[in-house]
Specification:
Helix content is 42%, strand content 18%. It is α/β, with parallel strands linked by helices. The strands form two sheets. Strands 1-2-3-4-7-8-9-13 form an eight-stranded parallel barrel, surrounded by seven helices.
Length: 361
């Protein structure tokens, strides 16, 4: 079973992302490279690069960063509505060869602003059906020659990708990450993804989802190696418990001052996975040992909805508990990104790798 410890680079031209106080450089190759090199220097395997219409093109940024780093793996977030699968399979395979096997891929089905780039598929069921075809076809194009496929959303005839992705050991192509908590999304993951990414739910929620996804894998007659699991979450780490909670509460106070608490109606319109996170505040302010739910009350979204807060030993122990449930891919972050890349990397990663090595022994 593979394992990854990844950071996050928001990939935006606008400052202030999730409270980051850096004012200059966003969207420049210099600053993006600085963040990637910091991740590399502080022990991260790579970083997730955010995607969305109106932001720098994620694949272009990933290509530039791969050229300016040595071991950094870009986890490239892409939407099927941006790409035809054959086009993407060829581009990603080329970058994978040029970077000597450092490409990771995160497939995103959620809406951003599809009308702005001409994507007319907005119904969730159709989007997930399209994503499943996209994953299926990209994998075939990476591993087979003369592929012919006739689906509801995509078609290719006698298609062969050249070059192929770099093959090393058991790795035949870039790892395909995928997120989503709805029944339709989970069926896509069980059938075609390599890694199902979870957001920061309590341990009981993750355990239930892992069990369900393993059962679904059998129900959909999964043809690939067993599905793996990942966690995308914010980690507020300081030298002591008291310092960590003081920092977390100060961050939340700043969020509260902006009066961005989601309304009940907004919660009902949001995606299933995000709604699961927002609903956690009703269970308590702190769940498990140090899962902080309050950020969700004041505009925290996605991985910023819940935070793991504590000393390095406490947060590492919390993450080890997820590891014991089967989670082996971790995508962590905190702001300011430049500073926390080093702090969290230096304080947390040695503890996590020591545990992972013991678990594998």
């Amino acid at each position: 079973m593979s394992q990854e410890f990844l950071w996050y680079i928001p990939n935006t031209v606008e400052p202030g992302h999730r409270g980051d106080d850096t004012t200059d450089g966003w969207g420049s190759i210099e600053y993006s490279t600085e963040l990637a090199l910091a991740a590399e220097a502080h022990g991260w395997g790579g970083a997730l690069l955010g995607t969305g219409w109106g932001r720098p093109d994620t694949f272009t940024v990933a290509t530039a960063l791969a050229a300016r780093t040595t071991t950094f793996k870009p986890l490239v977030a892409v939407r099927p509505g941006y790409w035809q699968p054959a086009h993407f399979a060829g581009a990603a395979a080329t970058l994978d060869q040029l970077s000597r096997g450092r490409v990771l891929v995160n497939i995103v089905s959620g809406l951003d602003n599809p009308a702005a780039y001409g994507d007319t598929t907005v119904d969730p069921a159709r989007r997930y059906a399209r994503t499943q075809e996209f994953l299926h076809l990209v994998r075939r194009l990476w591993t087979e020659e003369r592929v012919t496929f006739e689906g509801e959303h995509f078609q290719v005839t006698d298609s062969t990708v050249a070059p192929r992705p770099l093959v090393t050991g058991e790795r035949t192509h870039p790892t395909l990450y995928f997120g989503g908590a709805s029944p339709a999304a989970e069926r896509v993951a069980a059938a075609e993804a390599d890694v199902q990414l979870f957001w920061g739910e309590p341990l009981d929620g993750i355990a239930e989802r892992v069990e369900r996804l393993r059962k679904l894998s059998a129900e959909v007659d999964r043809r690939h190696k067993p599905l793996e699991f990942g966690l995308r979450i914010t980690t507020v780490v300081r030298d002591s418990t008291e310092e960590a909670w003081r920092a977390a509460e100060e961050k939340v106070a700043g969020m509260a001052a902006k009066d961005t608490e989601p309304t009940w109606s907004q919660r009902q319109r949001t995606a299933v996975g995000q709604r699961r996170l927002l609903d956690l505040v009703e269970r308590g302010e702190v769940l498990d040992t140090c899962l902080y739910t309050t950020p969700g009350r004041f505009g925290g979204g996605g991985a910023a909805t819940t935070w793991l807060v504590g000393s390095p030993d406490e947060v590492a122990a919390a993450l080890r508990a997820y590891r014991e449930l089967g989670v082996t891919h971790f995508v962590l972050s905190d702001t300011p990104y430049r500073e926390e890349t080093g702090r969290v990397g230096d304080q947390l990663l040695p503890r996590l790798r020591e545990f992972a090595a013991g678990a594998a022994a």
